[in-house]
Amino acid sequence: MGYIPTPSDALEILKKYNKEPFHIEHGETVGKVMGSIAKSADHENMDFWHSVGILHDIDFELYPQQHCEKAKEILTEMDFDDAFIHAVVCHGYGQCCDTQPELYMEKVLFATDELTGLIGAAALMRPTGLGDMEVKSVSKKFKDKKFAAGCSREVISQGAQMLGIELAELFEMTLNAMKED
User: Fold this and answer.
1) At residue 181, does pLDDT exceed 90?
2) pTM of this prediction?
3) For residues 156 and 118, what is the distance between their CA atoms, to the nearest angstrom?
């Protein structure tokens, strides 16, 4: 069994490879969402989920054209656990790698990664931010292809399908996790 960092260690590792505040905040947000969902889905592995979420884009700032490929190299060199590496790499399935999400946790990461960006962008447009945002607001922004155009609706939809849930349920699960303190 290889190295599995705590969430605080994962954040420090992320900061070694990412300097842009946006990339660090994105890692923190996805980590928070993953940790929150793990509370009910896989409580004993909550820190694992959280750390995977934080480090899922470890390579993106330095190697955007080799995303997920370089993550595997970086994490392997640091003697990370194989399951951790697989979870990080498979979030890019169909976009930049052929490694499929297999476990529930991996599917949650695949589904929520792009969605956190869309929800975050919607929050920036609101005077109250995430505070009183509802699922119907997320759905409305999701349908507007010009809004947060960089957030792939196809990936979000595919993620919901992988999880066997409706988009509204994915929106609610992710939104609630983002609102947690």
Assistant:
1) no
2) 0.96
3) 10
